[in-house]
From TrEMBL:
One of its GO terms (biological process) is androgen receptor signaling pathway. Residues 1-18 form the signal peptide. It comes from Phyllostomus discolor. This is Mammaglobin-A-like isoform X9. Transmembrane segments: none annotated. It is found in: Secreted. The keyword RNA-binding does not apply. GO terms for cellular component: extracellular space. Pfam families: Uteroglobin. SUPFAM superfamilies: Uteroglobin-like. Keywords: Secreted, Signal. InterPro entries: Secretoglobin (IPR016126), Secretoglobin_sf (IPR035960).
Length: 93
């Protein structure tokens, strides 16, 4: 689970540096971390970005992993996300 989080958050500076999709990516990550968003709602929000059934299964698995995390872990993910957005690379966008 932590590896998935690290890989997902590592990609943020690249998207922000390119200046494309920051808002979409921010929304996607926020709903991934949010424990109040269930799997069905999460997948429905991302339907336009899921090219196939295998990708949908992977995102469903990822959301379920986040739903099984403690509040402390979710707070740390949110703090990491904000640290990346406040970084040198994302500050320009």
């Amino acid at each position: 689970m932590k590896l998935v989080t690290v890989l997902m958050l590592t990609a943020l500076p690249l998207y922000c540096y390119a200046g494309i999709g920051c808002d979409l990516l921010d929304d996607m990550i926020s709903t991934t971390i949010d424990p109040d968003v269930d799997v069905t709602e999460y997948i429905n929000n991302l339907k336009d970005f899921l090219p196939g059934e295998e990708t949908e299964k992977a995102y469903t698995f990822m959301k379920e992993c986040f739903l099984h995390q403690s509040e402390e872990t979710l707070e740390k993910c949110a703090k990491t996300q904000q640290a990346i957005y406040s970084s040198f690379w994302c500050a320009r966008h």
